[in-house]
Design a protein that fits this description.
The chain is mostly beta strands. It is built from one helix and 22 strands. Strand 6 and strand 7 form a beta hairpin.
């Protein structure tokens, strides 16, 4: 009698503790045994996991130490959708875990294709060896330490891009508020604005040049200058761009309002 009641009580407490663990780790609970502390959850291709509204997601390579030759083949593509889930479309060894207030998704190497909510509390992508593409995502984001080209489609919230060793392409820029930054880039920077943009752009190239055109390949004769300031629409947002050796070029839709000056 007493021993049986004690056993039932201990089992109930263990179940309650497991439930609390799920809450503390932002509901990262999938069928199967509970993972060790901080180990996170492995996600295979086509698997997905629901994340809380307003979550901050960090995507990073789990590779430690020096780079190897085959890591040049690494490529990451992230697409934002109207969903509350993170889905691994393609990739191996993908793991998601809790790190303080952030959710961290990591993988060892190779091709990684992800679908994520189109708006999060924050998105940080860092320590990637290879190319990175981001589309369909309209929330704030940060890209840091990228050894390859970066292409972003349709950003409409403030962003920060740092330490990119490759071409940076921002297409369909639609930001209307806040301060955004592209800094310490070691390659060309190409910015194509949308008609919805309302932004002032300040550009400085240490060893390259800056140019303004309305179509690809068209410039306003400023290629030999090291800096430029442009305003599109009302100029309510601000974008600061700096490169070390690359050229900075800005393209805006034909007939879009705004002004530029060196």
């Amino acid at each position: 009698g007493v021993r049986k009641a004690l056993t039932i009580t201990l089992v109930s407490m263990a179940a309650l503790m497991a439930g609390r663990h799920c809450v503390r780790t932002a509901r990262l609970c999938l069928p199967g045994p509970r993972p060790p502390p901080d180990a996170g959850q492995l996600l295979a291709a086509s698997e997905s996991i629901e994340i809380p509204t307003g979550a901050v997601l960090r995507i990073e390579s789990a590779r430690e130490g020096g780079h190897t030759a085959d890591e040049a083949l690494t490529s990451v593509a992230v697409r934002g959708l109207e969903t509350s889930r993170v889905t691994v479309v393609r990739g191996s060894g993908v793991r998601i875990r809790q790190d303080g207030a952030e959710l961290v998704l990591s993988w060892p190497r190779g091709l990684l294709l992800l679908e994520i909510p189109s708006r999060l509390g924050g998105l940080e992508i860092r320590r990637i060896t290879g190319s990175l593409g981001l589309s369909g995502y309209v929330g704030p984001f940060t890209v840091d330490e990228l050894d390859g080209p970066l292409t972003v489609h349709g950003p409409s919230a403030p962003f920060r891009v740092r330490n990119v060793r490759g071409l940076v392409r921002i297409l369909g820029l639609a930001v209307r508020e806040g301060i955004s930054t592209i800094a310490q880039s070691d390659g060309d920077v190409e910015i194509e604005t949308s008609e919805e943009a309302s932004i002032s752009i300040r550009a400085v190239s240490t060893e390259g040049g800056v140019s303004l055109g309305e179509r690809p390949g068209e410039s306003a004769g400023m290629n030999l200058r090291r800096r430029g300031v442009w305003r599109l629409g009302a100029g309510t947002a601000q974008l600061n761009v700096s490169t070390i050796r690359g050229k900075i070029s800005l393209r805006r839709p034909p007939g879009a309002g705004g002004a530029g000056r060196p």
